[in-house]
Design goal:
Length: about 130
Amino acid sequence: MKALSIKQPWAWLIIHGGKDIENRTWHTKFRGRFLVHASKGMTHAEYCEALELVVRAAHIDVLRDFPMFGDLQRGGIVGSVELVDSLDHSESPWYMGAKGFVLRDPQVLPFIPLKGRLGFFEVPAVVLK
């Protein structure tokens, strides 16, 4: 199955917080379900930037449930989501990039430690068992 590395807390927001756009600088022709891989790297500045956007864009429940910096799982698979489109513009409050992957139907998965890669990458089925 394909996976995409996404920095925290953005990966958490996709799976738990209603983030329906993944911002990228490139389009993809890929459509379908992929694994959300939470990258190892995350600075305090990146965390605070995301928190500021949550205050503006998300429902109050998302803010209430937003994990503390040290509680975010990193360096592995945290869930899956379906990619349904790749756009140049979106009215979603989560859209901030040159391009946006439209996401739907996030599903939580048990954490699976795994090294990430750039772009979409293949995760062997044996890793998911």
